[in-house]
């Protein structure tokens, strides 16, 4: 008797500036794998070897990589820093379509699209057309959008209507990876009610969280300063390192982790200038273990770090990024601070003195584990997708 073909999902993700989208997609992919779904994770961003992103995933496909030239996200450049042209886009589109046709997935997941990544529609929409045609013929694949808890508001009039139209045209499900009791989807997407019938809040997607270890373990009782993907982290680094001498944790080791997008020359200069007791390193693959072991976390407050803070119970100070049109970190941190889960220093008052004061407040607060937030997003996403596949069969 032939063995039943495993349910297969194609998960497309494109990170353009930091690495948060890729990290979340990897955690989601591993959650789907744990539920028995075979995942093909397709990444279009710059490779990040330290993440070991393909570990625990059936197949990882790296498209010819692209990134945003700067925080405006207006221009795309390839791995050599050259602007992408129509020929390059055609090559990427053909590659993505070939991956789809070879896989014939039961599920297609687009991370953020159509709520964002509009600049990648040249390759996403042809894949969605292939998926829609196949769905009309066979009932599958289920087409789903995977989005974080907070969206950046559309920049132009008419974009929201365009998003709704694309959701209705292509998608069976919209999975919002947040906790509705903390941040309702309509808080950042005003027309959420128009697609409420296919929208499901899953809880936050977080990688498996290790237990706190004892003395001598990595990061034990240290202050862990993390600058995310690193491309926009200069102000955070200066304020955080400067705060050490001004606060009660001045005798602890402060371990500063800088992402791989941060220029090598600037990284070496930061490491050389670091005072005694401050260790400057590149981002580490054991970051979640460091968080579980630390005395305090200082970060930009991006989606992945915040979910890991909540899951590990680390005391935390967040210095959210609000450059360009990016407002999601600031809103998320503000709403969680209102619940007492972390401390925030807003960008317009960011300085060493304000960070030191926030460290003091964090040390006086209860650990984040005391603030219940749903972090079961990967498992719930898998359950929703499996249910949708069964309905279509």
Structural notes for this entry:
The chain is about 35% helix and about 15% strand. The chain has two domains: about 10-205 and about 375-390, Glycogen Phosphorylase B (Rossmann fold); about 225-370, Rossmann fold, CATH 3.40.50.2000. It has helices spanning about 20-35, 85-105, 120-140, 160-170, 235-245, 265-275, 285-295, 305-310, 330-340, 350-365, 375-390, and strands at about 10-15, 40-45, 60, 65-70, 75-80, 105-110, 140-150, 175, 200, 225, 255-260, 280, 295-300, 315-320, 345. Helix 1 crosses helix 11 (about 375-390), helix 2 packs parallel to helix 3 (about 120-140) and helix 5 packs across helix 10 (about 350-365). It is built from eleven helices and 15 strands. The two termini are about 20 Å apart. With about 400 residues, the chain is α/β, with parallel strands linked by helices. The strands form three sheets. It has a seven-stranded parallel β-sheet with strand order 3-2-1-6-7-8-9, sandwiched between helices. Strands 12-11-10-13-14-15 form a six-stranded parallel β-sheet, with helices on both faces. Strands 4-5 form a two-stranded antiparallel ribbon. The model has no long low-confidence stretch (mean pLDDT about 90).
